[in-house]
Amino acid sequence: MNIRQFLACTQSTSAGRRAEAASALTRAYLYGNLEADAAWEAKTAILALLDDPAPVVRRAMAEACAASARAPRPLVVALASDQTEVACLVLASSPVLTDADLVDAAAMGCETIRATIAARHHLSHAVAGALAEIGAADTLAVLARNPTARITTGRMLRMVERHGGDATLREALLERADLPIEVRHAVGARLARSLSAFVTECGWLSADRSARMSREAGERNVLELCEGAGAAATARIVKHLRTTGQLNAGLILRAILSGQMAFAETAFADLTGLEHARVGTLLREPRGIAELHRRSGLAEALLPAVVAALSAWREAADGTSTLRGVGLSRRMIERAITACEDMPFSEMQGVMALLTRYEAEAARDEARTVARAIAEEALAREAARREADEAEAAWRAAQHAVARDVEPYDGAEATAPDHLAIDPRDRIGDRYLWDGAFPEADLFAERERRTDPVGAILDALPEAILASFREEQERVRLAADAEAALDARPEIDGEEVLDRRRLAA
Fold this sequence. Notes:
Blueprint: H1 3-10, H2 15-31, H3 36-49, H4 55-65, H5 73-80, H6 84-91, H7 99-108, H8 111-118, H9 125-134, H10 137-145, H11 153-163, H12 167-174, H13 181-202, H14 207-226, H15 231-243, H16 249-257, H17 261-272, H18 276-282, H19 286-296, H20 303-318, H21 330-340, H22 345-404, E1 427-428, E2 431-432, H23 443-451, H24 453-459, H25 463-487, H26 494-504
Antiparallel strand pairs: 1-2
């Protein structure tokens, strides 16, 4: 039966039978090694089946050719423009589709189609960029979770800008191993904005106070991200902050007061256009600090505070003094406050308010550190006490088990006489009184001696001393028995009693 007869036979069948026939024909074309004429007829028939009114037929063809690189391009492009259920099959994995096809499908399709494209392996920069511009929050979350998707830093920032308020998208971005530091900062800043808006709507804080707290939290987040991030990452985030208008005098002053001079040097270099080495040299000279401050365009009122803070930092670097703790340094803040006290009130007011907030923040940080250390020490002591109690309980349990445990002598099966009860006191060394080592008549007498404190002390004496003591005890007992026997026989004369007593002695 040729292709024409095959198509003629399937015209009058049900949609399910037509779907089976379409799937078989598509797989025969892709994997059947047909001759040229047969292949041309099969391809023509497959394309003709695209006009079938039943979606199940087109779905069967999509399932058959979705992963094949030999699928006819007109067939794949047509299926990619079909109903969502059919289009998603080829858009998810077809290697025939180009970036232009995917971008067009994303632009014309619904969010389900965009999410399907976002999950494709090895998604290119162009397609990822298009999705970042038009995709919804759920689609962008799928894109962010795709580890093989190549997304540029600018597109990630665009995603945060468009839908950074969505928690699912923020979590998906933060899970990426290649997330740039500036994107991480943007995510944190957007979270701070969301929290600020929430507390403002609830009426817990005023809009101005909430905005200031959000800004200061963002500045602290920047410095925490830059700590140990490297020069290149710090330069990128400084450039991002300057581009977005977030690189201000307050952030630079916070970096200096926190001792993060790498960020301060990078910020001054970015603002002045000077080399890092030159900036580092100027920061170690009082006149150089004034020049950097002027060329950076920072407020003149902050210059005394910056000079005083850098003076305290140089003293710490030279070993003259020490700066303790992390975050803001109270010593540097105190020096800055002292330097600003002689300024006119109109100029001092804003700077002193900023420094006062920094001082309160530093005090709270130190209190948190001390409280955390005290709590950890208390937990360590409690853990040590519990371990000691558990060890003591285990030792007591072991002693109790030993006291109750009765093991046969030399590994042989042995049982106590039926008329005797097993008692831990019956054990002397590694033997039991009832296993034949001692006469049964002396069993209870031996038990009583074992409970005597003197007997317990004697058990600890060396064997030689113990044997000598026992011989002495036996000799005294024999002498006492002999004397008692003599006293009980009055018929023996006195001379004979004396002789026997001498012999007994």
